[in-house]
Amino acid sequence: MKSFAYHQPGGIPEAAKLLSSVAESKLVAGGMTLIPTLKQRLAQPEALIDLSSLADLRGISDDGATITIGAMTPHAQVAASELVRGKIPALAALASMIGDPAVRNRGTIGGSVANNDPAADYPAGTLGLGATIVTNAREIAADAFFLGLFETALEAGEIITGIRFPVPLKAGYAKFKAPASRYALVGVFVAQLPAGVRVAVTGAGAGVFRVPPMEAALSNNFDASAIAAIKIDADGLTSDIHAEADYRAHLVTVMAKRAVGAALG
Ligand SMILES: Cc1cc2nc3c(=O)[nH]c(=O)nc-3n(C[C@H](O)[C@H](O)[C@H](O)COP(=O)(O)OP(=O)(O)OC[C@H]3O[C@@H](n4cnc5c(N)ncnc54)[C@H](O)[C@@H]3O)c2cc1C
């Protein structure tokens, strides 16, 4: 691993100043993705800016029609939160399915969303619920945030401070895990919101995406039978050592039906 400077800022403004003024610097949250990346020399930053001592970035608040989860909140805390379990149980269930206990205790929601791994779970929950990503500079709708493989709308110097989730009428998440990593081979988040139904898929392609035909069908009839005949085109989906694109396409419908079943309890 190449040597680097280490900064532990005392507040978000100081972290933002360091990020924009120190060349080749990178934020570190739980280090679950970043540290292995450094070890493999896939990234060689000059400086790391550690967010772990910033208490403002941790915790979950109830804002009435929405709940906001601080960027540094670990997955285990979201999974165990009475607030999340009460208001958006599907999101707590999603957090409980991430990796293993070590990953859930170190990995953070902000790091997961910023990283935008194509097989990560939170991008599906964030896009599926139509959440808002709050940064030190602005608010970004989930529909405009996830741009593709490990790519987001975050600009240089921008720090995610939290994610604001609307409380849905109903929601469910179903994931078919890759057995070793537990990342999603395919994961589908379905949410019934006052404005209609949203369906977001992770693991199947180069990034999380919505499925408008399923959204339309479920908006008319929120039942798994409404989407049973909807087939996903395998063109553009991922083929790798874990699964071929046509198998992933098949899994999208299967997982979407299970997610609706989970939403209906
Ligand atoms: C063995 C293993 C299994 C896993 N299984 C799963 C799984 O099943 N499902 C799943 O979804 N994920 C899985 N993960 C990923 C894990 O859940 C973490 O969320 C993810 O690795 C990000 O980790 P982190 O929060 O520690 O962020 P870090 O690794 O510290 O950072 C990741 C990236 O995000 C940037 N970043 C971090 N915080 C912010 C912020 N607040 N604002 C802007 N940029 C930021 C960093 O600069 C870096 O580029 C797994 C990871 C491992 C190691």
Would you write up a description of this structure?
The radius of gyration is 18 Å and the shape is globular. β12 and β13 form a beta hairpin. The chain is α+β, with helices and mostly antiparallel strands and 265 residues long. Among the domains are: 1-54, Uridine Diphospho-n-acetylenolpyruvylglucosamine Reductase, domain 2; 170-263, 2-Layer Sandwich (Enolase-like, domain 1). The protein is built from eleven helices and 14 strands. Bound molecules: flavin-adenine dinucleotide. The site of flavin-adenine dinucleotide has 32 residues, from β2, α6 and α7.
CATH homologous group name of the domain at 170-263? CO dehydrogenase flavoprotein, C-terminal domain
Mean pLDDT: 96
Low-confidence stretches: none
Query: What's the β-strand tally?
Result: 14
Bound molecules: flavin-adenine dinucleotide
Strand order of the largest sheet: 4-5-10-6-7
Class of the domain at 170-263, according to the CATH hierarchy? Alpha Beta
CATH topology title of the domain at 170-263: Enolase-like, domain 1
**Shape label:** globular
CATH architecture of the domain at 170-263: 2-Layer Sandwich
Strand-residue proportion: 15-25%
> By helix and strand content, what is the structural category?
alpha+beta
Number of DSSP helical runs:
11
Distance between the termini: 48 Å
Q: Biggest sheet, in brief?
A: 5 strands, antiparallel
What is the CA-atom radius of gyration, in angstroms?
18 Å
Q: Tell me the series of helices and strands, N- to C-terminal.
A: EHEHEEEHHHHHHEEHEEEEEEEHH
Helix content: 25-40%
